[in-house]
Design goal:
The complex is a heterodimer of chains A (159) and B (773). Chain A has 159 residues and is of the alpha+beta class. Chain A folds into two domains: 78 residues, Ubiquitin-like (UB roll) (Roll), CATH 3.10.20.30; 64 residues, DNA polymerase, domain 1 (Orthogonal Bundle). Chain A is built from six helices and five strands, in the order E-E-H-E-E-E-H-H-H-H-H. In chain A, strands 2-1-5-3-4 form a five-stranded mixed sheet. In chain A, helix 3 packs across helix 6. In chain B, strands 3-5-1-12-9-10-11 form a seven-stranded mixed sheet, with helices on both faces. In chain B, helix 14 crosses helix 15 and helix 16 packs across helix 18. The termini of chain B are far apart. Chains A and B meet through helix 3, helix 4, helix 5 and helix 6 of A and helix 1 and helix 16 of B.
Chain lengths: 159, 773
């Protein structure tokens, strides 16, 4: 196991670290950079709580080596939260009660931000498909889907 | 805005969760987000044997490895503990025997994860393998090596309940119709997203501080004191945000105590984060259960009797099992009048991960058994399933034969709403083959009247308020918000009573140094009990503010009314003072204002053995209709829509009540459709979220929530529970919908597509027809 320098960008800031080859991105974020908004739920790529955006794409940071971020842009939940107030997706999650325990929430917010960037007006099935890699045990996904649909004035079910 | 339908300013509306902005921004702090200087990593060595006698554990090599701060084995802390004071049978680490694959043999605290893992590998355990008992039926009689010495007559029976009310045999002798069913239920687990995690620190002043992902900080506090031998006042328990619980974080758990013990051993802070496999092995999920039920009814469909027996698989420890054994029987009472009832329940230890409390604890499996049996009964009677329920509904202000006091019930209103909104009568037995509609009903306790407490005379909940010159109101209470929204409700009640803006109220995170005792988030008790305590505390604080307003206005307090941020004279609205003026005047006498409120449930229940089990200050009621479609060629099915009519009294936060109902439907559907703790012998085969499948967003049906409850006379502002009762009705609603779709009854859960396909094939092989096929 060797350690080598890693150059990446996290939430718009250049990061240079010497990182062991086997270090996963989740540990780099949570432990080295103390960006604890990214959650560790299973360490197995099953729950989606560790989702971050790697060059804008939702990525499971527990299955990604930190090394994979070399020369790329990592966005965590801290990176989408404005200095003041909330991102529209975050605001919609609050207004619609899409959080309960909140542990899965950062992953859902990031997945939703990526979806809405590429598909600003998804229908219910598209939202369900997009978030199907994130597990939520509290909400039954109902209010999460409603929150995502509402961000850009989406239609409620049945219309 | 207050209206005639809703006289309250905040309560009864949709109140976004107060901590929502922290959760959506990743700023909410969970236990694993916290750290301390000089932190050690704690790791556990778990038993590879289902049942073994420990001859020796050699930790000498591990103890001397560089970076290892402490290695712990069971003999140092042999004091038994358990969530119920009457069944303390657990130890923090195994002492003498291991009782399931996953029992904790040893623990290590080390400088880092890798060192800790290497230390675990260096521990040598010599053990004599004992017979394993994975089947609870085997343990009903005397066995070669009982798992615990407390097993009844050399068996593995942990608890046996025998109850008989009325005369069941006479009722069956005169019955016009009887139905007999056997329900088999696989074990399911909570699958909360935040893994179990604890951090502990022992400091030179002799104090212990523990942060833990727990639903019941108070029980953890007590178990730490008992096992570690430290007085309660020298232990400080903090509950950061908790990433879901559903019952799985309500027992004091061994890793929490081990983590604290390691902190004492080392004098350094220790964090113990369980991986997902460890979380599955810790389990305490819903009990695998076999229910045998006979139902007797007269010619018109009046229920005459239930005769119920159950074999319940407890796993290795007692946990809540004595309560489970009672609940699996007595929660058969309600929502119907049942004049004769007999129950024989046996919970049996097995060499598997312990079962415990899971959302709608003790009420879920028996409810499925009853509601599907009633669907059969309605068919025998050639009666609409709704009419059978209407005929037998318990009325308000009645008493069950088990002496449960039913005060408010809007069960009939639930039935009416679900029937009308779903268009049930136009669809029942009329939808095309492969499509069906079904009814399932529910009943659950709104808080246990029988608290697990030092003394039943102490309140079940206490709330403290403090208002200081900044105009903010700090609320202290040990109730545990685990995502269900209890902090939001607590703040909203205080704001409602005092007439202040919601953002003036700050619910202080649970800290046993300052939070008065509440016995935690289980038994769906928080809204009812904390709500009443919060209301009382707020009214006492309001009295201080109105006394000051009297001083300022000259009008007596009883002529003053509460407006938004203002107290004014009822008949002279132009005369009044602001909240801040009143507060600052009141503070001239005493400094910061303080008030305390408490809730103790009233005396109730019978005097027979086990009479307290199932008594509650109120009960929730439910009637759910599910519409489902089945592909008869593959057995795959989908639940298309659910109409969920629920009586939680007055819903105080509609957003949260809807969230509880939608989430409960998700969890109940999971148990119905596929969730199962799968074993080969005593070995859990699917300890991961990849193999233990909870429903996906695509499997979640559309849910129409119908809140039809009337005010409960004792609930805070008329409210009752909505956290657990919403789960029980969905399983039978779907089971009965599948019967309507394809003509097959399903009594073995989970109902996987292969079972549906086999059922359809069997029906065809028997030459039976359904809906013209």
């Amino acid at each position: 196991m060797t350690s080598r320098p890693l150059r990446t960008r996290v939430n718009g800031t250049a990061v240079e670290r010497t990182v062991p080859d086997e270090r996963i991105l989740l540990d780099l974020l949570r432990e080295d950079l103390r960006l604890t908004g990214t959650k560790r739920g299973c360490d197995l790529g099953t729950c989606g709580c560790c989702t971050v955006l790697l060059d804008g794409r939702p990525t499971l940071s527990c299955l990604t080596l930190a090394r994979s971020a070399e020369g790329r842009e990592v966005t965590t939940i801290e990176g989408v939260t404005p200095a003041e107030g909330l991102h529209p997706v975050q605001r919609s999650f609050v207004e619609h009660g899409a959080t309960q325990c909140g542990f899965c929430t950062p992953g859902f917010v990031l997945t939703s931000v990526a979806l809405l960037r590429d598909h600003p007006h998804p229908d219910r099935e598209e939202v369900a498909r997009a978030i199907s890699g994130n597990l939520c045990r509290c909400t039954g996904y109902t209010k999460i889907i409603e929150a995502v649909l509402a961000v850009n004035g989406g239609k409620p079910r049945g219309d | 805005m207050a209206t005639e339908a809703n006289p309250y300013r905040l309560l009864g509306t949709r109140i976004p969760y107060v901590e929502g902005p922290l959760k959506v921004s990743g700023r909410a702090e969970y236990t694993d987000d916290l750290t301390r200087p000089n932190l050690l990593v704690g790791r556990l060595l778990r038993s590879p044997w289902p049942h073994a006698r420990i001859r020796s554990i050699d930790v000498s090599a591990a103890r001397t490895m560089p970076g290892v701060a402490a290695v712990l084995t069971g003999e140092k802390y042999p004091t038994t503990f358990g969530v119920l004071p009457i069944t303390h049978d657990e130890t923090a680490l195994a002492v003498g025997k291991t009782r399931y694959i996953g029992d904790i043999l040893a623990a290590v605290a080390a400088s880092d994860e890798l060192t800790a893992e290497r230390a675990l590998e260096a521990i040598r355990v010599d053990a004599e393998v004992l017979p394993e008992y994975s089947d609870p039926h085997v343990g009903l009689g005397a066995v070669e090596e009982p798992i615990h010495s407390r097993g009844l007559n050399g068996s593995n029976i942990q608890k046996e309940v025998i109850q008989h009310f009325g005369d069941v045999d006479a009722a069956f002798a005169e019955a016009a119709h009887t139905v007999r069913v056997r329900g088999n239920f696989a074990g399911v687990t909570h699958a909360f997203t935040e893994p179990l995690v604890t951090m502990a620190e022992a400091t030179p002043d002799g104090r212990l501080t523990v942060w833990s992902a727990t639903q019941v900080p108070h029980y953890l506090h007590r178990a730490l004191s008992e096992v570690l031998g430290i007085p309660l006042h020298r232990i400080r328990v903090l509950k950061p945000e908790v990433g879901g619980g559903f019952g799985g974080k309500s027992d004091p758990l061994p890793h929490e105590i081990v983590c604290a013990a390691l902190a004492f051993e080392t004098g350094r802070p220790v964090k113990m984060l369980l991986d997902r496999e460890d979380v599955f092995l810790t389990n305490h999920g819903r009990h695998p259960t076999q229910n045998d039920l006979r139902v007797a009814a007269d010619a018109e469909g009046h229920l005459l009797a239930y005769d119920l027996s159950a074999v319940i698989d407890g796993g290795a420890w007692s946990s809540f099992g004595t309560v489970t054994t009672y609940y699996n029987g007595v929660l058969a009472m309600g929502p119907y009048r049942v004049p004769n009832f007999r129950y024989h329940g046996r919970r049996v230890y097995t060499t598997k991960p312990p079962s415990g409390a899971m959302r709608a604890h003790g009420g879920t499996n028996v409810r499925y058994t009853i509601e599907t049996a009633l669907d059969e009964l309605a068919e025998k009677l050639q009666m609409n399933p709704f009419e059978l329920r209407n005929l037998n509904a318990l009325p308000p202000n009645s008493t069950t034969i088990t002496q449960f006091r039913i005060t408010s019930t809007s069960f009939l209103a639930c039935l009416k709403a679900a029937r009308e909104r779903s268009g049930f009568d136009a669809k029942f037995r009329k939808l095309p083959y492969g499509r069906g509609i079904g009814l399932g009903c529910g009943f659950y306790i709104s808080g246990s009247n029988s608290p697990i407490h030092f003394t039943p005379k102490m309140p079940q909940c206490t709330v403290h308020l403090k208002a200081d010159m900044d105009g903010g109101i700090a609320v202290h209470c040990m109730q545990a918000d685990i995502g269900q929204g209890s902090n939001t409700l607590l703040a909203a009640i205080v704001a409602e009573v005092l007439g202040v803006q919601l953002d003036r109220v700050h619910v202080v995170p649970v800290d046993s140094d300052v939070s008065p005792v509440d016995i935690g988030s289980y038994s769906s008790r928080v809204t009812f009990m904390m709500g009443n305590a919060a209301r009382q505390a707020s009214e006492r604080l309001l009295a201080l503010l109105l006394a000051a307003a009297h001083e300022l206005t000259g009008y007596p307090a009883k002529q003053l009314r509460v407006r938004e941020e203002r107290y004014e004279v009822a008949h002279r609205p132009d005369v009044g003072v602001s909240y801040l003026e009143a507060l600052h005047k009141a503070m001239e006498h005493s400094g910061a204002l303080q008030a305390s409120g408490a809730y103790t449930s009233p005396p109730m229940g019978g005097t027979h053995k086990g009479a307290r089990a199932g008594t509650a200050p109120a009960y929730s009621f439910a009637a759910y209709v599910a519409e489902a479609s089945v592909d008869p060629e593959t057995g795959f099915f989908a639940v298309e829509k659910v109409w969920a009519a629920f009586d939680c009294g007055r819903p105080l936060n509609r957003l949260a009540v809807e969230g509880q109902i939608e989430g409960s439907i998700h969890m109940g559907l999971g148990q119905f459709m596929g969730e199962s703790m799968n074993y080969r012998g005593s070995r859990l085969l699917n300890p991961s979220l990849l193999e233990y499948k909870i429903p996906t967003p695509q499997q979640m049906p559309e849910v129409e929530v119908l809140l039809v409850g009337a005010d409960d006379p004792e609930g805070p502002f008329g409210a009752k529970e909505a956290g657990e009762g919403p789960l029980v009705a969905i399983l039978p609603a779907v089971g009965n919908a599948l019967y309507d779709a394809v003509g097959v009854r399903f009594y073995d859960l989970p109902v996987t597509p292969d079972k549906v396909w086999r059922g359809i094939e069997r029906l065809r092989a028997d030459g039976k027809r359904w809906k013209g096929t």
